[in-house]
Amino acid sequence: MFLDKLKHQLQQNQSLFIGEETAFRSAVLIPLVQVDDKWHILFEVRSLTMRKQPGDISFPGGRIDATDASPLAAALRETHEELGIDPTTIQVVGPLSPYVASSSFVTYPFVAIIDTNQIIPEYNKDEVEKVLTVPIDWLLNYEPYMHLVSVEPMPSIDFPYDKIVNGAQYKWRTRSMEEWFFDYEQYTIWGLTARILKHFIELMK
């Protein structure tokens, strides 16, 4: 009885990773657009007045709300809120693998085709400074470069060292985080956007 119930539970749809239910979950759209009959990817330059990452280059998207039916629904909603694009005019091509930055942060990317004529000139200036497009042909031939960032654990002041072997002398494992960079004209794409972009371009190759 126990094993039968266990097998049934394991066959059910499980979370992507342990902790997904409580992680910060966001969704982004990788918008494909045609410019002069050439395929480009559209990016946003985040508003310079934003509290987080002002001026950074990003994909349309944001946090998944409890009212969103799915990560895709969140990506479409955010794209509408930021760029004014009617979700019914967006042609979804398909999902990419989620980007799991840590057990507390995951992003779900989706590739889609949008008509640049649908972008309202007065897009949400509270979130978007401007938009730009980068040719896919250029991205396919560009070699992004990488720098490592050292990440060291910082236990809280009330961490129960008395519960673990070696106590306060415990040797925490540091790790290195890859940060990728794409330099296009006067713009630099980096961070989460660059990681997702790199994965997408590698799939295309």
Q: Would you kindly provide a brief summary of this structure?
A:
The protein is of the alpha+beta class. 21% of the residues lie in helices and 36% in strands. The termini are far apart.
Model description:
- The structure is a single chain.
- This protein has about 200 residues and is of the alpha+beta class.
- The chain has a single domain (about 20-205), classed as Nucleoside Triphosphate Pyrophosphohydrolase, CATH 3.90.79.10.
- The chain is about 20% helix and about 35% strand.
- The chain has four helices and eleven strands, in the order αββββαββββαβββα.
- The protein has helices spanning about 1-10, 70-85, 135-140, 190-205, and strands spanning about 25-35, 40-45, 55-60, 60-65, 90-95, 100, 105-115, 130-135, 145-150, 175-185, 185-190.
- The strands form two sheets. Strands 1, 2, 3, 4, 5, 6, 7 and 8 form an eight-stranded mixed sheet that branches. The protein has a three-stranded antiparallel sheet with strand order 9-10-11.
- A hairpin with a 2-residue loop joins strand 6 (about 100) and strand 7.
- The longest helix has 14 residues, at about 190-205.
- It is globular.
- It starts with a helix and ends with a helix.
- The relative contact order is 0.18.
- The model has no long low-confidence stretch (mean pLDDT about 90).
- Keywords: Hydrolase, Magnesium, Manganese, Metal-binding.
- Pfam families: NUDIX (PF00293).
- Its EC number is 3.6.1.-.
- It comes from Lysinibacillus sphaericus.
- One of its GO terms (molecular function) is metal ion binding.
